[in-house]
Design brief:
single chain, mainly beta, UDP N-Acetylglucosamine Acyltransferase, domain 1, twelve-stranded mixed beta sheet
Length: about 230
Amino acid sequence: MYMPNIISENARIACGVKIGENVIIKDNVEIGENTIIANNVIIEKGTVIGRSCIIGNNTILGNTPERIGKVSPLILEDSVKIGDNVTIYAGSKLMKNVVVEDLSTIGELTIIGQNSYIATGVFLGSNVLLGNSVEIGPRTYVSSYSSIKDHCRIGAHVKLSEELAKKSYETNVPIGTIIEKNCKIGDNTLILHGIRIGESVVVLEGSRVICDLDSNKIYGGNPAVQI
């Protein structure tokens, strides 16, 4: 059934923006020129969307979880493409040319570098940092506070777990998994929380990573060992 759009008088919508049906745009939203908003989209207050973006059907942008209170607005830079049934929380920033496919969720305070690709059904927790030109495969789960640096390729059904690795932490600072630049992580790999994987590492499909991995090496197995 057709429902009229609800667009705040305080929203700033540039020329050439196309808006579908049953769209809700709240106070102080900014939408750049030539952006396309599909049907049944909710854009929460203060969200900033750049030029030439595409926002898919049934998507929610700029949600704020009740548990964290007030955070900065969601920012999508120019030429970002968001698929259908995606939720992206407030405080996050997606840089130029990022693609997020259908059914994905991006938690609050997460940053995704330019030219990165998020496949279907991915979950990124809060405070995640993805570098430039990172690829995340379908149905992959990335726990909060994880960091995946530039030019990494993460396969399908990979899990950056919330289960802590067996190592001692002597700080109250949140711990996250770190994957350095130019790594390739195979499908169906499990990586325990708090692990650091060095630069240019290859982890083979189906591996279980329970300790830090040195740079420029190939690992595989359960638990993963150097090959």
